[in-house]
């Protein structure tokens, strides 16, 4: 046993990608066991590894954790990316939850039926440009610090930067009016652990193409 | 200023009810500012109190917090309902998120168009009896303790109690095959703070009827 966390999911972004980002940013090496077939999922369900029969699931420190937020909360606490006290944590949670709301629409884009893709994309662009990115730009402007909370890196920065990249893939000019967000992204991207994760060959996953979507649908149908 | 938390929402369960439950279970008195007209919501937005232009919003300890989970996490931590360490918290979070998933389906039922309601109810019943209640029965069986995590009351017991009451409103027979879950429900309902909250006249909200839904639609334009 390596002692490294083991991530159980399909070979794609989905709901596991923020977990990969956070572990990577924290400099934690992790292994991945990819579900390729319906049987792989069935096996995990049958051996009682999935409390609610669902993935993501992460084996970490003797636990088999499911539910993305439970996993992220644990990693953030363990690696000191969750603020210094209750009040900082409240801000981090508030910011992370806003990002999660936007991410929920973004992560579905590859999986949305073809005839609904345009409408979903329009929704992403609208929410990013008019609700979420202005809110985070305002936070950074309000204190002028390098990170969202407490003047140091937290999970909220890592999650936001991940989303900035993902939304930009779908809407290339989205960051044009958000200079502080751009600066945050550059700053976080230059941290050694994040820089490494951004290189080709890392465990970061690409945008799910049609072939990937098709094989994922088969696992979960 | 009373120092009490102030809850901003409309007069219904929605996404604020779990917060009311947790505060009540923790014995914390709270005030509510009910959003009745579109202007009330607009004012909150204009005053910059809603980070993402949304409610629930809770004023607590000098902060203006939005996002249900951020609010619940803060309350749970402050009132020691979040486990004794990181690992207990991981279990609490895991179980609470499962509850939130099923609760989300129930919350959405209120705004589901009539022609889709039956299918949704069917799915809720299926998930309740085949996925979620078995999971919690298994947890309780595995350690034989009186609470879900750490042998003492935590936020997740309260979230589960709330959920069980909603499940019963949909179909009271759904709990029948789960004796340990039923026993937990009885135990929790007898705790003084919970018992008080379950009485008529408390700040607990009734099921959202058509009239309340119409009022909410006017304000929130959905």
UniProtKB/TrEMBL annotation, chain A:
Which residues does the UniProt record annotate as the domain GST N-terminal? 3-83
Q: Does the keyword Transferase apply?
A: yes
Assigned GO CC terms: cytosol; extracellular exosome
Q: Which residues, by range, are in coiled-coil regions? A: none
User: Pfam families of this UniProt entry?
Assistant: GST_C, GST_N
Name the Enzyme Commission number(s) assigned to this protein: 2.5.1.18
**Reactions performed catalytically:** RX + glutathione = an S-substituted glutathione + a halide anion + H(+)
Matching InterPro entries: Glutathione-S-Trfase_C-like (IPR010987), Glutathione-S-Trfase_C_sf (IPR036282), Glutathione_S-Trfase (IPR040079), Glutathione_S-Trfase_N (IPR004045), GST_alpha (IPR003080), GST_C (IPR004046), GST_superfamily (IPR050213), Thioredoxin-like_sf (IPR036249)
Top enzyme class, one word, equals transferase
Keyword check for Cell wall biogenesis/degradation:
no
**Highest taxon, organism lineage:** Eukaryota
Family statement: Belongs to the GST superfamily. Alpha family.
Name the record gives this protein = Glutathione S-transferase
Automatic annotation (TrEMBL), chain B:
| Name assigned to this protein | glutathione transferase
User: Does the record's keyword annotation contain Transferase?
Assistant: yes
Its Enzyme Commission number(s) read 2.5.1.18
* Major enzyme class: transferase
Instruction: Show where the GST N-terminal domain sits.
Output: 3-83
Instruction: Please give the superkingdom of this protein's source.
Output: Eukaryota
Question: Of which family is this protein a member?
Answer: Belongs to the GST superfamily. Alpha family.
**Catalyses which reaction?**
RX + glutathione = an S-substituted glutathione + a halide anion + H(+)
Species in which this protein is naturally found: Mesocricetus auratus
- GST C-terminal domain location, by residue? 85-208
Which keywords annotate this record?
Transferase
């Amino acid at each position: 046993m390596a002692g490294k966390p083991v991530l159980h999911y399909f070979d794609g972004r989905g709901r596991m990608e923020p977990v990969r980002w956070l572990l990577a940013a924290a400099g934690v090496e992790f292994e991945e066991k990819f579900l390729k077939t319906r049987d792989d999922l069935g096996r995990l369900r049958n051996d009682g590894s999935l409390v609610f029969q669902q993935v993501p699931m992460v084996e970490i420190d003797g636990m088999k954790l499911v539910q993305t937020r439970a996993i992220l909360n644990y990693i953030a606490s363990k690696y000191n990316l969750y603020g210094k006290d209750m009040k900082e944590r409240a801000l981090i949670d508030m910011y992370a939850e806003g990002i999660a709301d936007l991410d929920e629409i973004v992560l579905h884009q590859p999986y949305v039926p073809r005839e609904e893709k345009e409408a979903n994309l329009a929704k992403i662009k609208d929410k990013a440009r008019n609700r979420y990115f202005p809110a985070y730009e305002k936070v950074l402007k309000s204190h002028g610090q390098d990170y969202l909370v407490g003047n140091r890196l937290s999970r909220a920065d890592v999650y936001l930067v991940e989303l900035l990249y993902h939304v930009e893939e779908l809407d290339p000019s989205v960051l044009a009016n958000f200079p502080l967000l751009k600066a945050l992204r550059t700053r976080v991207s230059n941290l050694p652990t994040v820089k490494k994760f951004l290189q080709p060959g890392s465990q970061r996953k690409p945008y799910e193409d049609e072939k990937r979507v098709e094989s994922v649908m088969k696992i979960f149908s | 200023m009373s120092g009490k938390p102030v809850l901003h929402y409309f007069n219904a369960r929605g996404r604020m009810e779990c917060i009311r439950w947790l505060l009540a279970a923790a014995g914390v008195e709270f005030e509510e500012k009910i959003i009745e007209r579109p202007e009330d919501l607009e004012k909150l937005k204009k005053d910059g109190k809603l980070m993402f232009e949304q409610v629930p919003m809770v004023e607590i300890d000098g902060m203006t917090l939005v996002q249900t989970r951020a609010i619940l996490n803060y309350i749970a931590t402050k009132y020691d309902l979040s486990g004794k360490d990181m690992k207990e918290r991981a279990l609490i979070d895991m179980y609470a998120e499962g509850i939130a998933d099923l609760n989300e389906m129930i919350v959405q039922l209120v705004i589901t168009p009539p022609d889709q309601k039956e299918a949704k109810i069917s799915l809720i019943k299926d998930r309740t009896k085949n996925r979620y209640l078995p999971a919690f029965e298994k947890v309780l069986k595995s350690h034989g303790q009186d609470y879900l995590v750490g042998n003492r009351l935590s936020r997740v017991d309260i979230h589960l109690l709330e959920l069980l009451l909603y499940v019963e409103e949909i179909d009271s027979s759904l709990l029948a095959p789960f004796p340990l879950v039923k026993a937990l429900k009885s135990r929790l309902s007898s705790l003084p703070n919970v018992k008080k909250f379950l009485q008529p006249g408390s700040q607990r909200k009734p099921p959202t009827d058509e009239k309340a839904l119409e009022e909410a639609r006017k304000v929130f334009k959905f």
